[in-house]
Structure formats: C-alpha cells, structure tokens
Amino acid sequence: MSALKVLSVVSELYPLIKTGGLADVAGALPGALAAHEVEVRTVVPGYPSVMAALEIASTVVAIEELWGGPARVLAGKAAGLELFVVDAPHLYARPGSPYQAPGGADWQDNAVRFAALSWIAAQIAMGAVPAFVPDVVHTHDWQTGLVAAYLTYDGRRRPGVVTTIHNIAFQGRFPASLMPMMGLPSYAFGMEGIEYYGGIGFLKASLRFADRITTVSPTYADEILTPENGMGLEGLLNSRRAVVSGILNGIDDTVWNPATDPLLPAHYTVSSPLGRRLVRTELCRRFGLVDDPKAIVFGVVSRLSWQKGLDLVLAGMDKILALGGQLVLLGSGDADLTAGFQRAASTNPGRIGCTIGYDESLAHLIQGGSDVILVPSRFEPCGLTQLCALRYGAIPLVSRVGGLADTIIEANEMAIDAGTGTGVVFSPLSQEQFEGALTRVARLHADPTLWRRLMRNAMKTDVSWSRSAGRYADLYRGLVVERGA
C-alpha cells in the first residue's frame, strides 16, 4: 500500500510558532500519522521564527504579486517536519504573535494574511508543486477556512478536504467590503457560500465546503450542535451532521515524558516516582513557595479567561488556602483576572505564586511538580493540559465538559482501586461545585496510599496520538475512496 499524501494547512506549528494547543496538535500529528502510512506536508506562514528554523529549502512556487507584495513558497524541513513555507514578508515578517501586534491588538489585515495562506494552500492542493500532489487536504480553524472555498469555486476536480474545529468561538469574521480582493467569484458571497451575518465568515466557509468536519473530542462534537455551544454555527453544523465527528487529541509523548524531559530538574517514571519530589521542590523554589510536603500544590497553566473558568479559581482562593493548599499559576489573558491573581500572590507570599506570560520550560515544571492541575473550563473542545497532567502524575481537577469529560474518569475509591479513576470531575459548573471538588481532592490527598494509586492510574493512561492518528488515517482513506480518487 502506497503512502497517502496529506497537505496540512495551519497558522501555527510547534515547536516553530505557538500560541496554543493548535500548534501542539499540528506539530505532533504528522509523526503519529507516519506509522499509518500517511505522508504529511504542512503549509505554514513564513513568520520570522519559521524562517529562522527552516533548513535547506528550495523555491517551488514564485508569485509576483500576492495581495500587496511578492511571495514564494519554499519547500524545506524544520524540527523534523516537512514544510511548505509561504515566504511573504509583507504579510508575515512581523513581531508579536501570529495574530496580534505587540500590545495585544489584532493585525488589521488578518483577513488578507490568512486568505493568502488559504489561497496558496489551494494552489498546492491543485498541483502547483508536482512533486507533492495531495490526496487529502486537512485544514485547521478559521485561519485556513477559505481553503475549501477556493478549491470548490476553482471548478476543477479537487482533493477531499477535512477541516478540524479546535475552538468554534474563534470564527474569523470580516467586513463584506473585503470580498473583491479575496480572489473569489462574486456569487460566493451568499448564504450558500462564504457570507455570514452580512460579512465574510472564514470558519463558516470551511464548514460549508469541507467534505469532513472534525472536532478535537467526541463530546465537543455533540456540544457544538446545540445553541448553547454552537456559537451561531449550530444550524449549519446540524445540516451537515452526517459528516461531523470528534477525534480526541493526543500529546507528543516524546516531548511530554517525565522520564527524559530535559526541562525537568529530575526524572521519574510510574514505577520509580522518587524524582518527582525533587521536581516539586524546584517548583516551590521558582515560585517562592514554602516547600511543605503536607501542602497540596495546585497548578494552573492556562489562558486567563472566563472560558477557562479561572474566575472560579480566583474566587476559590480562600478555599484552597483553608485546605492547606498552595497555588502556582502560569498564564496571561483578561486584565481583571491577571490583576486578581497578582494581588492574591502579593498578599499570600510563600503560598501563592504567579508568572504572567508563557514559558514552555515553566509549563513542564508545573506539570512535573504540582500535585493537582486545575482545568475548570466552561467549555473545552479537548484540552491538552489535563493530558500532560496525566502523563506527569499531576491529578487533573476538571469540569465535565468537552474533551475534559472524555479524558478524565472520576476518582472515587472504587474507581481508583479498579485502576480506572484518574482525576476529580465536577458538574454543573458553579463555584459551589468547584469548591466541593477541591474538598474531594484534599480528602484523597490525605490518604497517601490512595493518592499513590491515583497517581499510578494517571501516569499509566495512554495519552499519545497512536489511537487517534489511526482514526484520522481511516477518515482520510474513506474520503479518498468516496471521491473515487
């Protein structure tokens, strides 16, 4: 059986450029798919960090004018990933994140920047690079939402398109006045095309024209069909319900491995966990906490937002402290939450520590040294934080939504003894239920024997991409057969 060729199109890619879980997924999935005879090449913008990491590369497409300046497509490799890099300095050679300028405001030309990415990917999909003509195109989130539209309106026979929703709350909505520069026919602007509430909808276009729609967990696939979680797109999704499915994310278990992680001060395994105590000591030192072996160290690695339920954590600080707990936090986001956690840290030195921003090495240290990882999200398409926590033996305390419901099993005593319980789950989402979950986790922690069993259960959970990569491979092949390619 010859390898299936898949063109992945993304706006960020770990370890080259990352703002969230999309980058982790896009970076880990190609390697996992290789075991299933799937060859992946990824289209990514030529941000400064991507260009700096690109190894020997060659120009495979040259474009005199790409919406404001010349561009070229480079074929090359970086961090073990096979890439097509869109080198368009007028669009991507900028400081800041892929989406925002320094200071936090969105780049004003984001519609053009990501329409250009989508258009280039569509050209490659249609054979612009003869050495790699894909059988399937896999797009991710709104930033690549126009790929399916460009391919559909091209009119020629095209490869099948799979689109993955990582978070339906981010939809890529832009003014209708930009339509003439998008390179699409005028009749594409309609209810059956890319029009969305009077403007252009990048994600809407993807959901309209993709052959398969996936989300990053089965529960989230069900949730987005409802008015509560569909964010205005539930009608379209229900009309295409037959092609909607959820495939659970995994993590790269070579990067996230406490036995070999170079970002940890000591290593440990499920059968030899002693090194974890040394990691915990270093974590306390880094955050200025008292290294109290009896205290529960609660960890947070998150965007500080209402979606992530971090207001519940802030309001629950008195409860955490009353239980003898401590808190370490790494994240950035809403100003009121940021200020609130900073105040809590300043008034509780030695018990609460926070670092505003993101630091990959510190994220690994929190996973490796915390006793409990808090993920009380109001909605969570999948979540990778709790998967990393399982791998590192930090017990997840999560809300019963989306991928959290699919990955964490409530750890009552019977479930722990049976080897199935892996964390503490609460529902419905309220302050009372969250604080009740804090009390439950404290009771478990007070029994060292039970806690060790719970940690073993967590660390033995398979959080790799192996099973889910197989599901993606089956999805791709089924689509190829269906389209008669």
TrEMBL record:
Family annotation (CDD domains): GT5_Glycogen_synthase_DULL1-like
Keyword Transferase: yes
Signal peptide stretch: none
GO molecular function: alpha-1,4-glucan glucosyltransferase (ADP-glucose donor) activity; alpha-1,4-glucan glucosyltransferase (UDP-glucose donor) activity
GO biological process per UniProt: glycogen biosynthetic process
Reactions this protein catalyses: [(1->4)-alpha-D-glucosyl](n) + ADP-alpha-D-glucose = [(1->4)-alpha-D-glucosyl](n+1) + ADP + H(+)
Entry-linked InterPro entries: Glyco_trans_1, GS/SS, Starch_synth_cat_dom
Positions of the Glycosyl transferase family domain: 292-442
Protein EC: 2.4.1.21
This protein's UniProt keywords: Glycogen biosynthesis, Glycosyltransferase, Transferase
Entry binding sites for ADP-alpha-D-glucose: 18
A GO CC term attached to the entry: cytosol
Pathway: Glycan biosynthesis; glycogen biosynthesis
Residue span(s) of domain Starch synthase catalytic: 5-238
NCBIfam families: glgA (TIGR02095), PRK00654.1-2 (NF001899), PRK14099.1 (NF010699)
Family: Belongs to the glycosyltransferase 1 family. Bacterial/plant glycogen synthase subfamily.
Role, per record: Synthesizes alpha-1,4-glucan chains using ADP-glucose.
Protein name, UniProt field: Glycogen synthase
Gene that encodes it: glgA
